[in-house]
Amino acid sequence: MEPIVTPEEMAAIDAAAPEPVDELIERAGAAVAREALGLLGGAYGRRVVVVVGKGNNGADGRAAARRLERRGVRCAVLAAGEAPASLPPADLIIDAAYGTGFRGTYEAPRPRDPATPVLAVDIPSGVDGLTGVASGRPLAADRTVSFAALKPGLLLADGAALAGDVVVADIGLDTSRAAAHRVHDADVAGWLPSRARQAHKWQAAVWIVAGSPGMTGAARLACGGAQRAGAGYVRLSCPGAATAVDAPVEVVVHPLPAEGWAQAVAGDLARFAALAVGPGLGRSAPTTDEVRRLVRSAPVPTVVDGDGLVALGDQAAACVAGRAADAGPVVLTPHDGEVRSLVGRGPGADRFAEARELARTTGAVVLLKGPTTLVAEPGGQVLAVDAGDARLATAGTGDVLTGVIAALLAVGMAGPEAAAAGALLHARAGDLAWSRGLVAGDLVDHLPAALAAVAGGPIATLHPRR
Question: Is 58 in the same domain as 200?
Fold first, then answer.
C-alpha cells in the first residue's frame, strides 16, 4: 500500500527529517529531473520551461532545472506571477509554482502549444492538497511527481483529474506513521485467503435480507455479488415477498413475514459467516424498526447498505454499540445522500476527515463511496481505492458491492480489508466489462475474472480491457 498524508502531516514529516532542507530539495529536484527526461524522450537540445514559486516547491523546480541543464536541456526558469500568460515554446512545462499548502487563487500561464506535456511538482499548482478542489485555473498535468507519499488532493475532486499519472518519489523521508493508504491489486491478493482442501459451503455462508414485494432486483444483484466473490452458500430473504423472488438459481430463498422478522433472522444465523441487509428493503416504519433490531442483535459480521442505512439513521451508533462483543464488525456503505441520512448532512470537501468522523461516531467500518472510495475504521485508519471509472455510476452496482463485501467477510477477512478489497474487485470487474452500456449484472459476470486478474492468475472473459 502507498502512504497518503495530509499537507500538515507532510510538513511534520519534513520537519522531523535528519537531513537539512537543502539536501531534501536536491533529492526532490533529482526526482523531478528523472521524470522530465522520461517525458522528453531525450535530453540534448530539448527546451523546458520551469514555472517556480518562492517556496520549497519552486526550489524543487530550480534544482530540477540545474540538473536538466547539466544534461544538455535548455531551461527557462520563470517566476510564478511574473510569467507571461502564454509561455515560451517548449518541449515540456514543469509546474513548480505552488505546493500542497497553497491557499488562494492561481491563474496558471498556458503553454504556447496546448499539446505541450506538463509535469507537476508534488501537486498541480492551485489544487488544494487536502481536498483536491482547484482554485482559479490550474494547469492540467500529464504527470505529477509526489514526494514520499500521496496527498489527499491528488485523489479527490479536481485534483484527481488534473494530476495525470502520479508517481511517488522516495526522497528518504519516514512515512511509516501514515494513517491512510492507497490500496493496490497486490494488497488485495495478499489479503484473500486460500480455500482449504476440506472446505465446505457453510464455512462461507451469507444471508442477505434485501428486496421487497415486487422489487427484488437489488436483492438478486447482491446475491450475485456474494456468490461470485466466494460465498459458499447464499440465503436470500425478502420480507413479505414469500418465495416470489427473482433470485439466482443457486440461491436458497427463505421466506420472512413483512413485519417482526429481525428476531427470526438473528436467531438462525449460527451457521452463517456474514449477513447483508438493506438493498431494496423499502423505508416503511416497520422495516426501519426491524433493521435496527437485526443490526443490534446479529451475531455475525454485517454489511448495511441502501435502505438499511436510511433505517439506521441517527441510531446507527446505538445499534452498533448494542452488538455482542464477539459479533464482528458492521460495515456501512453510504454514498453522499446516505451519509445525510446518517448524520443529517452530506460530507464536506475533506472526505478523508468525513469518513474518519463517521467511523468514529458510529463505531462501524465506513465505506464512503465516490470516484475515490474511502474505507475508514473507528481508530482512524483509512484505505483509499481509486480504481474504476464512471461506468460504475449506474443503478444496482452498489447492490453488487454489498454482496461482494459480505462474501469477503464470510471467508474471514477483517472489516476494513473486506470493504477495501470489495471496492477494488468491484472496480476491476467494471474494467473488464463493456466500455459503454455496462449494467450492474455485468459486474457479477466479470467478478471471477477480476479475482483472477487481481490474484495474478489467468483471465477467461469474452470482454477484455480495451
Answer: no
CA distances, 75 to each of 67, 78, 105 (Å)? 10, 10, 26
The CATH number covering residue 392 comes to 3.40.1190.20
- Decide if 219 is inside a domain: yes
| DSSP labels, 358-393 | HHHHH-SEEEE-SSSEEEE-TTS-EEEE----GGG-
Among 121, 146, 177, identify where a domain stops: 177
Residue 461 has, within 13 A of its CA and on its CB side, a CA count of: 26
Owner of C-alpha cell 482442501? 197
Residues 377 and 433 in one domain: yes
From first to last of the 466 residues of the chain, give the pLDDT tens digit: 999 999 999 999 999 999 999 999 999 999 999 999 999 998 788 999 999 999 999 999 999 999 999 999 999 999 998 889 899 999 999 999 999 988 889 999 999 999 999 999 999 999 999 999 999 999 999 999 999 999 999 999 999 999 999 999 999 999 999 999 999 999 999 999 988 777 788 889 999 999 999 889 999 999 999 999 999 999 999 999 877 788 889 999 999 999 999 999 999 999 999 999 999 999 999 999 999 999 999 999 999 999 999 999 999 999 999 999 999 999 999 999 999 999 999 999 999 999 999 999 999 999 999 999 999 999 999 999 999 888 999 999 999 999 999 999 999 999 999 999 999 999 999 999 988 999 999 999 999 999 999 987 665 444 444 4
Q: Which of 152, 177, 202 is the last residue of a domain?
A: 177
Half-sphere exposure of 248 (CA within 13 A, CB side): 20
Any domain includes 34 = yes
pTM: 0.93
